[in-house]
Amino acid sequence: MASYGEIVAAFAGTGLAVRGGFTLAGHEPAPTMGDGPPARAIVLIGNFGDMLWQQFAPHAGEAPDPLDTWTKARVRPSPNASAPWPCSRAIGPISPSSNGRCAPSR
Questions:
Q1: Which of 64, 100, 101, 105 is deepest in the core (most CB within 10 A)?
Q2: In b/e form, how buried is each residue of 61-74, taking b as 16+ CB within 10 angstroms?
Q3: Distance CA 19, CA 83 (A)
Q4: Other beta carbons less than 10 A from residue 38's beta carbon
Q5: What is the pLDDT of residues 15-68, one digit of tens each?
Q6: Strand duo 94-96 + 41-46: pairing
């Protein structure tokens, strides 16, 4: 498993940033992704300020869903990790709505 510092360094200069993360204690419920084992750590990747937009702008017209395509090209988990996408399926309190946009789960 990569260290937190290695994950932060991997996103340097990409337009994305590590917003935070934590390891799960043995007694805490852990999410699973597909057929994989339960998570041992969770890291939130996001953006702040305009650094994402500076990197993304030249690619804005390259795909039907350009921001999703651009982001997924930069977030490539290691073989022992998963990268769930909030609008692709229900995750915690967020789930996709009928129009494909994220909406609070009910």
A1: 105
A2: eeeeeeeeebbeee
A3: 15
A4: 11
A5: 999 999 888 888 888 877 767 778 888 888 888 888 889 888 988 888 888 888
A6: unpaired
Query: Which residue, chain included where needed, has tokens 């795909």?
Result: 63
Tokens 């998963």 -> residue: 82
Number of H helices, E strands in the chain: 3, 4
Pairing mode, strands 41-46 and 17-23: antiparallel
Phi, then psi, of 17 in degrees rounded to 5 = -140, 150
| C-beta separation of 51 from 45 below 8 A | no
Distance CA 74, CA 81 (A): 14
